[in-house]
Structure formats: structure tokens, C-alpha cells
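C-alpha cells please, single chain.
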Amino acid sequence: MGRTLGIFVVVTNCTPQQGYDDMAKIFKGLSISGLWGCFDEFNRIKLEVLSVVATQVQYIKQAKQEGVSEMVFPDKDLSLITFNPVVGYFITMNPG
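Here you go.
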């Protein structure tokens, strides 16, 4: 019986059609599961959505720093979730 090494990375190709609810579902899922997320072409997301996403990222960052096992996730329901501190997120941006 061998051990599994590594962490799954979920890649999201960002589009201007993505809303903050879509992003909340992704960040919430990553936070519960402890998976990593790569957000490709993050610069394509509309500015008003990015401002909400910044709040979501801040909540995750704070939960990681505090070492909590549960957190209130800033979605439309303010859900209390089980938090997995292994969660990570990475962003790529393409100029122009």
C-alpha cells in the first residue's frame, strides 16, 4: 500500500462572464477540500467581480494565518465551513 504524493490543482480558465457567485463556489470548494486552484487569465474577470473576490481571498488568508478549523465564508449565505489549511490559489495574468 503506497502513499499518495502531491496535491490536486483545479485549473479555472477565467472569463468576463464569471460572476462572484461562480468564484465563491470555487474558492469555497478549495477551502473545504484543501485543493489548490490555478486561475488562468485572471485579468479577464470584470472589476466589480474582482472586488468581491478580493474579500473572499482575504477571508481565506486570515483563516490560514489564524490556523482555524472552521471559518465563515463570505458568500451570499455567509456559510460556516470546515476549513482545510492546505488550500492554495495561484493566479496567472496575460497583459493586453
